């Protein structure tokens, strides 16, 4: 059974950092495209970052560029999101997502596996 479990969310002050983790029970995890999305109540789920299962290439939403870093440890079937210089507008429920394909895409409808999310709150 496929399962994605996120952790690492919490309350942080503006300018602070958090590192999100996602442990995946997906067959051939290393060859899957993986991504982070986020969502606030009343809004659509938003792409944050993705990492290719083909060559490890990374892709970021404009809002994440220069502040967030996506990475993976295929030996641990794990995905990470290092978030620095956090802003109040980063407050959201953050989801880990995976594809059966190795290739990344920003649209959430093409991701086959989802975690339940971890809450990130940026507030003074």
Short description:
With 124 residues, the protein is mainly β.
Keywords:
124 residues; mainly beta; seven-stranded mixed β-sheet; four-stranded antiparallel β-sheet
Strand-helix topology:
Blueprint: E1 3-7, E2 10-12, E3 18-25, E4 34-39, E5 46-51, E6 58-60, E7 68-73, E8 78-83, E9 92-98, E10 113-114, E11 118-122
Describe this structure in words.
- With 124 residues, the protein is an all-beta fold.
- It contains no helices and 11 strands.
- Strands 2, 4, 5, 6, 9, 10 and 11 form a 7-stranded mixed sheet that branches.
- A hairpin with a 6-residue loop joins strand 5 and strand 6.
- It is globular.
- The protein starts with a strand and ends with a strand.
- 34% of the residues are buried.
- The model has no long low-confidence stretch (mean pLDDT 97).
Q: State which percent range the strand residues make up.
A: over 45%
Q: Percent of residues in helical segments?
A: under 10%
User: Describe the biggest sheet?
Assistant: 7 strands, mixed
Query: What is the overall silhouette?
Result: globular
Number of strands: 11
Q: What is the terminal-to-terminal distance? A: 40 Å
Low-confidence stretches: none
Rg computed from alpha carbons, rounded to a whole number of angstroms: 13 Å
Query: What string, H for helix and E for strand, traces the elements in order?
Result: EEEEEEEEEEE
State the helix count: 0
Query: How confident overall, as mean pLDDT?
Result: 97
Structural class by helix and strand composition: mainly beta
């Amino acid at each position: 059974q496929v399962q994605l479990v996120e952790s690492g969310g919490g309350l942080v002050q503006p300018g602070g950092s958090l590192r999100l983790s996602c442990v995946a029970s997906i067959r051939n995890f290393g060859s899957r495209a993986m991504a982070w999305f986020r969502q606030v109540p009343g809004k659509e789920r938003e792409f944050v970052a993705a990492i290719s299962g083909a060559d490890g290439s990374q892709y970021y939403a404009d809002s994440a560029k220069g502040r967030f870093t996506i990475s993976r440890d295929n030996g641990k079937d794990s995905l990470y999101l290092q978030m620095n210089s956090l802003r109040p507008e980063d407050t959201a429920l953050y989801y880990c997502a995976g594809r059966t394909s190795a290739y990344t895409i920003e649209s959430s409808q093409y991701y086959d596996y989802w975690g339940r999310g971890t809450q990130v709150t940026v507030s003074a």
